[in-house]
Amino acid sequence: MNLRHVLRVNARMILEIFEAGRRAADGDFEQCLIFATISAANNGHVDDDPLLAQAFAGKTVPDDMRRPIRMLRISESLGLARETTRVKVGHLVRKGLVTKTPGGLFIPAGVTTGGQLDAMFDAYIRSVAKAVDCLAAAGAAGLARDERLGGNIEDWRWGVVRNVAHHALRGVADLIHYVQPDNLIEAYLFLAVLDHAGAHFSAPGRVLYPDHLDYPPLAERRTITASGLASVMGIPRETVRRNLIALVNKGLIYKSPEGFGLPIIDSEAGRRADRVVQMSSMADMVRLVRRLRDIGAIARIA
How many domains does the chain have? Predict the structure, then answer.
């Protein structure tokens, strides 16, 4: 079933999507997640409806069709304190990225088409294109080996951007459920360690340890230092180190003289939880592939 392979590819894509979002939010991961949550609430009903999804694949959803979301709902869905949510939303409103209405918060269509977020959206598309390449090469997640992201990008650009952002948000929800983090940065760093430890096992055309019971040996997994993560992610080293130690204490990662890495799971309960995460990742990715195909974004290559 390629469960482990799909999880690795999915983790890399989600990490890249939220890295692009963090750059657009001046490095603030919580703002990035709040923005994605508002977008999902505003547009989710369109992409859930096959006819509407096709109709709006190549264009943005107009303001009068966007469904606002209450600040309290954002706070609850992300597990953020209400005051933190209020402050972060305030930043997004002052930047002109989010609008407050009596019914709640929404992202105006003009924000998505105005050019200020083009770099983020382009990064989304590059990331999903790489993921599709990697999965299709292994015939995974419902993709045929000759399928890729293709065709006329203008016909599906906005549908892909919305669906990929919403998919990443679902992945973060699964991550939070698995990690049970004390804060969102902790969950984000776990994802980064997970990616660094095993992304090299899922290179296109050379997939190693693809399935649930294929545990890569510890010696073949990569580690990364707190300084290395801080440099790559633009987060203060002490913040990174403190949150990594919290993950070590929870048994989710380990610390060695070479750095931090992903341990071998040897308990039956741990393996069951690991499989649940992999099955959820597979279901989410199959769902995303189906939606991309439905809006014409998946094409066969010659």
Answer: 1
